[in-house]
Fold this sequence. Notes:
Layout: H1 23-63, H2 70-73, H3 77-102, H4 117-141, H5 145-183, E1 189-193, H6 202-209, E2 212-214, E3 235-238
Antiparallel strand pairs: 1-2, 1-3
Amino acid sequence: ELAVAPEPEAVDEEPEHEPELDPAAELVVRRDAATAALEKNLARRLKRELSDEQNEVLASLAAAKGAPKADDVLPAPEDHVARYQSLALPTLAAAATAGADLISTIAGPPAAPTTVADFADELAAELVAPLRERLDRAFDGASTPDDVAQSIRASYREWKGQRVDQIASHSVVAACNRGLLDRLPDGTLVRWVVAEGDSPSPDCEDNALAGSVVRGEEFPTGHTAPPLHGTCRCLVVPVELDAS
Length: 244
């Protein structure tokens, strides 16, 4: 008979432990968890609104007489911006509240709700202004109504891609960061933290290396809070976290 080799004894493996994050990095993780759904929701709503707008523009184009221009079928510029400003404002306000809640255990009650209307205005302007320019070119460069319609669809399809996702994320992060800072008492020392895995710009790195400043004062770049660029996910955190 062939000898059967004994089975090797099972060796108990020590479970791998994730390295503990420092308090500032943990706050960044909590910030991302608090904003993830808001970013996705805002991007989804913006894309849905763009789809509705595309259908309205195409319907106006079909009903137009002669050779219409973009301004003949698009909303008035101020109405166009207001459409997306009012859509974004509730989500950005929720992001500011989420930011304030991140430090509720080390800060007092909020003095007043954080104002984020300027972020909603910036989001709408960043979305609408280049879209109108693109649609203007669609009307000027097309020779037939079908060509115009095809260019309109291509323009909205491009805007509903990565552009909207980036604008939504940037605005939500900005609102969340402001909500966090507004919750801190006057005189609180804060520092700039680069998010783990982020691709920071040199300006982000300079701010992070600058050390602490009083809440509301400017970092070397002249900013009081991130984000600095479209994909920046930096965060300003109270220095007292480091001592906890």
